[in-house]
Amino acid sequence: MTKSDLDPLDRKILTELQEDASQSLDDIARKAGSSKTPVWNRIRKMREAGVIGRQTVLLDPEALGLEACFFVLIRTAEHDPDWQDRFLTSVRTRPEVMEAHRLAGDIDYILKVRVKNARAYDVFYQNLIRDVRIHNVTALLSMEEIKSTTILPIPE
Question: What confidence score (pLDDT) does residue 106 get?
Fold first, then answer.
């Protein structure tokens, strides 16, 4: 299934699921302007095609005491497969890392890290540099989250 395979009903279903996946099938069908069975069949097909991935619950980080969000810019002088494997393993196994991206340009990687405070960030940092050698790390503390969403725009 590709973007061109999505019709207006599929888009409405996806919009509703992104807004609140815990809605009943009846509610999704009503809001999408269809009946339950066709909506269920479309959801099943979109799951099978990989358009819909796993379902989860969004938690409030501040309610959990994770008040500090750092964006960590990483530059490395090493690009061999062994270093990369160790780095990726380190990043993927740390629950503080919410996102990790490999970048084009002067910065090699950017991490979004959620922790309790600056001291907790330092513990994270010390553990990371214990796992892998890093040329340069810049940590930027987010002062205010202006927008955060998991809702993707659905192309027409």
Answer: 96
- In angstroms, the CA 140 to CA 73 distance is 8
Residue 98, classified by CB atoms within 10 Å of its CB into exposed (0-12), middle (13-18) or buried (19+), is: middle
Please tell me the number of Cα atoms within 13 Å of 92 on its side-chain side.
6
- Contacts of residue 147, defined as CB under 8 A and 6 or more positions apart, other chains included, come to none
Q: Which residues contact 113 (CB under 8 A, 6 or more apart)?
A: 69, 70, 71, 72, 96, 97, 98, 121, 124
156's tokens:
């027409």
CA-CA distance, 49 to 100, in Å (whole number)? 25
pLDDT in tens, 77-99: 998 999 999 999 999 999 999 99
Return the closest-CA partner of residue 73 out of 128, 119, 152.
128
